Amino acid sequence: MQWTKVLGLGLGAAALLGLGIILGHFAIPKKANSPAPQDLDLEILETVMGQLDANRIRENLRELSREPHLASSPRDEDLVQLLLQRWKDPESGLDSAGASTYEVLLSFPSQEQPNVVDIVGPTGGIIHSCHRTEENVTGEQGGPDVVQPYAAYAPSGTPQGLLVYANRGAEEDFKELQTQGIKLEGTIALTRYGGVGRGAKAVNAAKHGVAGVLVYTDPADINDGLSSPDETFPNSWYLPPSGVERGSYYEYFGDPLTPYLPAVPSSFRVDLANVSGFPPIPTQPIGFQDARDLLCQVNVSVYNRLELRNSSNVLGIIRGAVEPDRYVLYGNHRDSWVHGAVDPSSGTAVLLELSRVLGTLLKKGTWRPRRSIVFASWGAEEFGLIGSTEFTEEFFNKLQERTVAYINVDISVFANATLRVQGTPPVQTVVFSATKEIRSPGPGDLSIYDNWIRYFNRSSPVYGLVPSLGSLGAGSDYAPFIHFLGISSMDIAYTYDRSKTSARIYPTYHTAFDTFDYVDKFLDPGFSSHQAVARTAGSVILRLSDSFFLPLKVSDYSETLRSFLQAAQQDLGALLEQHSISLGPLVNAVEKFEAEAAALGQRISTLQKGSPDPLQVRMLNDQLMLLERTFLNPRAFPEERYYSHVLWAPRTGSVVTFPGLSNACSRARDTASGSEAWAEVQRQLSIVVTALEGAAATLRPVADL
Amino acid sequence: MQWTKVLGLGLGAAALLGLGIILGHFAIPKKANSPAPQDLDLEILETVMGQLDANRIRENLRELSREPHLASSPRDEDLVQLLLQRWKDPESGLDSAGASTYEVLLSFPSQEQPNVVDIVGPTGGIIHSCHRTEENVTGEQGGPDVVQPYAAYAPSGTPQGLLVYANRGAEEDFKELQTQGIKLEGTIALTRYGGVGRGAKAVNAAKHGVAGVLVYTDPADINDGLSSPDETFPNSWYLPPSGVERGSYYEYFGDPLTPYLPAVPSSFRVDLANVSGFPPIPTQPIGFQDARDLLCQVNVSVYNRLELRNSSNVLGIIRGAVEPDRYVLYGNHRDSWVHGAVDPSSGTAVLLELSRVLGTLLKKGTWRPRRSIVFASWGAEEFGLIGSTEFTEEFFNKLQERTVAYINVDISVFANATLRVQGTPPVQTVVFSATKEIRSPGPGDLSIYDNWIRYFNRSSPVYGLVPSLGSLGAGSDYAPFIHFLGISSMDIAYTYDRSKTSARIYPTYHTAFDTFDYVDKFLDPGFSSHQAVARTAGSVILRLSDSFFLPLKVSDYSETLRSFLQAAQQDLGALLEQHSISLGPLVNAVEKFEAEAAALGQRISTLQKGSPDPLQVRMLNDQLMLLERTFLNPRAFPEERYYSHVLWAPRTGSVVTFPGLSNACSRARDTASGSEAWAEVQRQLSIVVTALEGAAATLRPVADL
């Protein structure tokens, strides 16, 4: 439009024109003047999906898993540099990236004095020594960087005693032995992995006077029963006889010396004598080859040492164009026990490919998300989610106020059969939307969603048959985000066809056989499952960071609450009634939540049909984002460190309902009315009711009292 | 603009016009199209200031204080209806209003068996009985609704023993008596009000075996030494000889049976046997007339009873036009001990006048604030801030996420000399801005600000001489907002010229002499100080609810932190060094906070010069609003119920620095290095450093990692 042309006209025409200008300026509705707000761009989404490259993921994995990279090892630090280099790349990097380091307490076997498990004959002579290292079958199981199999945080000591087989080392296993008249005092308990947590085996054993614990991997649990060398890796994906699962035996998470404080050098550290959560007695993992050979008297020598080490997180960010103070946080840990091709490098390989594709669009100027995307590579996860936990302790308020959701991709591929997602209800919809649009790897033309529903499904009263999301425990770095900060979280992976294997987990988990070739040959040849996970995570991240309306559907919590309520009514109702405890207030609270969540959904639909102001949508999005926070109560479970989410805290009671209620009822069941245990049931019930009423209040129209 | 005129023109003209329309629509820059965002309107402010009417406040007060309105009494409920009627008035009401009721544990004297204090002669006969009621000097001290003077929550019991004068009932007072060889076991301690909290007198006494406690009001503390009937009310503002200060002797706040839970009927209630915080021994307040007469053996009979009562909060809201999910919360309690003309009705009279003026503008359509304004009338404050605390427990998350600031006006006028404001640093600026523009009552032409600075001032390194804000303890309903929720808060009142009186508080405080005439004749004839408080609160509320940029200046925290740091260095530095504890990390954290707060201030200034997008300003305002939250740590002081603010928790140590540090050092001082007490010093130091680092992190540009 050129003003010069206009100036050539006569005065009368100018007046008319002037009128027109005035009309044009004032009389045409405002709407046309404000450009459409930035929203999810399906073309960009398509581009990203197309550019996520299986072969690049494979090359990432090869590099990441080339050497063992135990937390705080030189190679772990090399990978910090690799991540920084990628995330600062001028062509495919992020807006900025940096590493931050914590000084944390880790546990290692002694290099000079390896841990030893010997069978001792009646005269005291050594009859058999267990393997100190795994057999070097591919050339990657040897060398100084392959850490000896050990139980991290197990105390050192050299107990000697009769061997007793104690199944999974659960409390009921030891009770059963006692019932059989077997004396446990001073024995060495041989237990197998699974059933209860690692540290719990030693805790349970010590209660019965056991002097030391061995933990082995049973071929029935991990190898579908196969155990001979020619049936196992490198001839199949199964664990060789010498393979030993390493792992942390610490009962909590985060740096053991700085609970609730970041492990920066200046932070107060608990005196070692006052640290709780370490296994109380020497403990050592072994392979099934050795487990088979064990007889009679056993001598276990554990020389583990605690060391203060520096461990880094690497963080990178793509700054949001419109709402930079809203974070979509996506992360995985970097440290492994040995080469860690599957755990965690299969996730990190995906992370790097996703940051490359998004970084390239960014650097080209093609795209910048509406909200900020934060990429994270956590340190020392294997020792107890340490890097992520310290990060949440350091930036508690900032993260809690601003984080839209946390996406975790740790082991990205366990196997090639199907997607598996764990998460809280508000993320269900965005995962469904994403997976319906991506083709499943393998033959046929199914979407990831349609394939997924064949393996994991449930009948939803609202939606009919849908894929079922698992719930989040504390198995990876999502734990501090959901349990401590109350941020809607999810964990994404590809996994097994359970009709084909009963392996507790992929067989070489935490052993020196978890290598690149293992992945390349057995787990995901062609890397199409890796690519599927990259696309799923990528689509979820784009939807969360770019959609004008946040795709978090809070009303999907109603189903969970209703099912918890029904379980409480069916399985605890009569018991509670006997003790004059009413579930009425809980019923009301659930109903109120359902009504408010549905009404909010209605308001969103109405608003979406109009052309809402960005500030209006921001206010609404805040309600969606912050709903998960309303379920936190830091005083609900004083004995459970970090766990504050009243819906997802650990459940020890058998009834699948609100965990505080389930646990308290299970403890009160055999006590008299009026006992402290029954008071705790009432307190837990009030905590849930207050949380649900508070949640409903945050969903109401914001100016309703 | 009429379209019909346009249609009459010829086609050529129409084309020209069309061009003009296009030009007008597209060629005039966008800026002109987006209207200036809603901001503080000085004309509206002026109108509000002018309409706040001293005489209406006086009439409010007359009605509010016409009858005693003890928490949960019928008259208290009548006032709930009065507030609802005012706030629902079609001409001067709010958008909506409602009452919500909690079932809370209160304590009352028995009507059948009044509490008794008798002097007993050597043979057991009663020599003298203390007054059971105050003398009916104005006709308002009699009648069934004037509650007998008593110590709320003191247990019942009838101890008899020798009277021992124990000064203020502080721990050192009892120690001093022991040093003098006075046997305390089984005695009745006579103490005077002041020095330590009410409940603390009984707690300290019981530790030394004292059987009962009397608390009297000393004329030296309250009456500038005057004590005869002709020198006291109704002849002056001083307390008559028979006046007795009532009060709650509960050590915590909130409903005693439902800590951390709202006292709704369904909530779990602690067993009475497990309630802590009640005075351990019978306690009774008396007047100085009786105190003077007390001799030898005394018999104290306390028949207080605990009762579950319904107590209501009344809430009203003016919905924000632009950001309805941001709340400016303004409140006062409603319940009194007797007529409560000063405490709390002087505040409620102001509250009603402010809601009337704003409500009228609202109903006329003249004005609607940018953010929501919430008015609150709290119940049962006198028993321990119960209504406000239960409210914060019920709506914890919603309030924490959305509340811009809390403004408390309890006793609005103690005396006519000067404004007095207690608050956290971020509210300093808005109070200064408001008070500079309002004329001070009384002779001369000073502003409230210029008058204020004559009475309370300090030398600020940043601003030079300024009025000094006091800090917030737990004296009124602001306590749960600042300490439990971390919401920037303030308490506003007019108060004494300290050169004219040394009265600990206005003399008829919590007695039956706190009546309308007392206020009308002695405290504020003409009600100009009430009006000044109404204008100050009104201007602060308008500025907080209407300003586009929130007038919370977070950099004003830097001065506080710096002064706490300097005190730590000067008064604790050497001691800490002896125990190898460095203040270095604290120095760094304070410096980082200062730098980030200053940089944020710069960014705001820059933005204010341009024409920022409302979303941009919202993001910035969120940083300002949420700063105070970053100082909360619910695990910092596990023994201090509700107190989570690491800068304002109760300080028992003598050094005026970070309270956790001060207290821990004071406890560790005489213990050896390596003691648990010194570990606690280090833990407290880490808690403060983590909070300050976290605060600085929230002030950084939001996309900086």
Automatic annotation (TrEMBL), chains A, B:
InterPro entries: PA_dom_sf, PA_domain, Peptidase_M28, Peptidase_M28B, TFR-like_dimer_dom, TFR-like_dimer_dom_sf. GO terms for cellular component: apical plasma membrane. Its cofactor is Zn(2+). GO terms for biological process: proteolysis. Keywords: Aminopeptidase, Calcium, Disulfide bond, Glycoprotein, Hydrolase, Metal-binding, Metalloprotease, Protease, Signal-anchor, Transmembrane, Zinc. It is found in: Apical cell membrane. GO terms for molecular function: aminopeptidase activity; metal ion binding; metallopeptidase activity. Residues 313-521 form the Peptidase M28 domain. It is a single-pass type II membrane protein. Residues 162-247 form the PA domain. Aminopeptidase with broad substrate specificity. Has lower activity with substrates that have Asp or Glu in the P2' position, or Pro in the P3' position. Lacks activity with substrates that have both Pro in the P3' position and Asp or Glu in the P2' position. Lacks carboxypeptidase activity. Lacks dipeptidyl-peptidase IV type activity. This is Aminopeptidase NAALADL1.
